[in-house]
Each structure stands twice: as structure tokens, then as C-alpha cells.
Specification:
Blueprint (H helix, E strand, L loop, with lengths): L1 E5 L1 H9 L2 H5 L9 E5 L7 H12 L12 H42 L1 H9 L4 H44 L11 H28 L5
Antiparallel strand pairs: 1-2
Helix pairs in contact: 4-6, 4-7, 6-7
Length: about 210
Amino acid sequence: MDVRLAPALEEFRDGSGFGDALSALEDNPLPHALVVTPSEEFRDPGQVEALTAELGGLDKVDLVQLDTEWVTRFNAILDIIRRVVLLAAGLFAVGILVIVGNTIRLDIENRRDEIEVTKLVGGSDAFVRRPFLYSGLWYGLGGGLIAWLIVASVILVLNDPVQRIAGLYGSSFSLQGLGSDASLALILGGIVLGLLGSFIAATRELRQIEPK
């Protein structure tokens, strides 16, 4: 939580246009004011209202003025951003499964004769499937790296506009890049999806291939 003393008379002098007239005052007629800005994790409207009630109960506090409208609006914007990110992540996951699955299916079709010969000499489906799983792993790794680059590029492009919008609501919020843990989770997620997509596609296709 950030607390600062608000120079009310100086702000009024700068913004009112009565600077010369106010300079004639011997004393400051305006009361002392403190501007309290809650930290990022305590900007829920309910928490802000609880903080207002607590401050209002302090001694020597005559008035607590709360502006929750900007808090509500800003939280609504953040909620939209979170949902868009979750939706994009879901579409990305489905895209990896579909793309990897189709790629593996085409690979199997191109090597159909080889697979039939392998099964003819006693090769099991698990044995034939193994190299396609390796391919799915590499496809998933590549997809995870591409996703990381996309996220980094989006953050780089949108960070300044988001900071300007946050500034309009009195916030210092800014987009943060993926940390090491999030980056690792993203890449591992791509690998897992690649393996899953290749396993499903390979298992389904290999069951339909029998030596003649």
C-alpha cells in the first residue's frame, strides 16, 4: 500500500487558475490530505471498501473519500484479459493436437508399406508407434517454442498501451513477461500435447494397418 501526503493547496493553485490570488493567503486554509493507493493484490472492490471503513475509524480522520468506480472498471478489464488468455491457451492446445495428429497420420500413410513389412516380421504396434511418438515430441517442442515467441511478442507490442490505460485508472499495472517457471511450463505443455496427439493418431492409424 502506497501512502503519500497530497499538497492540496499547491494542486488547487496549479489547477484552478487562481494562483496569484492564493499567493496572498498567509495560511493554508485546506486540511491535510493523504492519498492511499492499495497494492496490486488488494484492489478488489470489497477489499478497498474494507480498507476505507478501517481508515474511517482512525482518530483524527474527518473524511475518507473512496472512488471505487475506477477499481471496478479496471478489474473488469483485467478479467476480460484473463479470459482472452485462457481462451487463446485452449485454442492453442486444441490446435497442437489437431496439427500433430494430422501430421503423424500423413507420416504413417507415407510409410504404410514399411509398417506392413515390420508387422509381417513380428513388429508390435508399440514398436512401430515409438518413432512417431518421438516425432510428436519434437513437433510439440517446436509448438511450445513458437507459442513462447508469440507471447513475448504480444507482451512487447501491448505493454505500452496497457500501461497508458492503467494510468488512466490510477494504476501502475503493466504486462509482465513469462518467467522461467512459466516458460518451462509452456514448453513442457507443448511437448505433452505433441506426445498426446501423436499417440492418439498413431494408435488409431496402426490398428487399421495389417500385413496382407
